[in-house]
Amino acid sequence: MQLSDRIQAFVQLGNWLSSESGKQEQQEWAEIAYRKNGWFIPELVVKSLQELAQHFLTLDHLTAWADRYPALAQERTPRKIGLILAGNIPAVGFHDILCVLIAGHHAYVKPSSQDEILIRALLKKLVEFEPRLANYLTYTELMKEIDAIIATGSDNSARHFHYYFAHKPHLIRKNRTSVAVLSGNETSEELLGLGRDILTYYGLGCRNVSKVYVPNEYDFTPFFEAIASLETVSNNHKYVHNYDYNRSIYLVNRVPFLDNGFLSVTASDTLVSPISVLFYERYGTVAEVEAKLAEQSEKIQCVVGTTIPASIPFGQTQSPALWDYADGVDTLQFLIELS
């Protein structure tokens, strides 16, 4: 298959996802996925699929992405690429599959048990639009005959992956999270965007903000007022269970915290907060924050705000571009170089 054929297949998938008939079928997928995984409420499943359609699967986006890699247009011998996918948010592993197929390789896919419904549904629809891609897709539980591996998991599973696949070309991803740096001059709209960065997908993704750095005299009242409309997270019983549990732990242990009825905010030097909790750390100078972020760069996926250079704008963490790679490692370049 030519690169243009592969691109066109994904464009067709994107067009279908955006169509009325496509949205109706996606609602059915969403209901099934929710029965499998209580975090995947239908509204968020449909949101994630529409993000794919709008930010990944358009001719303009795919062409602009491919144009960054002139070698993509060259003929290559397909390699067998093992994909051990994450399942923390809906369809999160789709980008890795997209990279493998666009590079002209064969994807050996092991979906997460938490997200198997959506991955299989998307790939089935893709093959309907381009049947030749069926020859480049295999589901597998074992990774015995692969040429390279891309695996995403916890820090513990990453150690296992490094040991088991040490003799293969590999990309092994560990736990990451995202942070925001506030100046204290943010508008209500920016603070609402930050709230979405924290709470979309209930904070389960590596692009969710789990910690904020704030000036020494920062007052959280405007932040709580700005995010009041996000209280709908409390409609999910799994989220409420986490909120009640973590709040109780802080009360019992007399840990100081702020609270608005659905999000607790407490001081911590660490990066990763529990679900329903936002950590904060006060700073005196921006240089102090930059030094701390540099020390922890291998644990940080995104930096949000306007204070630190190259930060992501508030409210944009869950809308990555095709070239916003996990862990900052160029997945597509890795796949191209295998040839």
UniProtKB/TrEMBL annotation:
This is Acyl-CoA reductase. InterPro entries: Ald_DH/histidinol_DH, CoA_reduct_LuxC. Signal peptide: none annotated. One of its GO terms (biological process) is bioluminescence. Keywords: NADP. It comes from Siphonobacter curvatus. It comes from the Bacteria. Pfam families: LuxC.
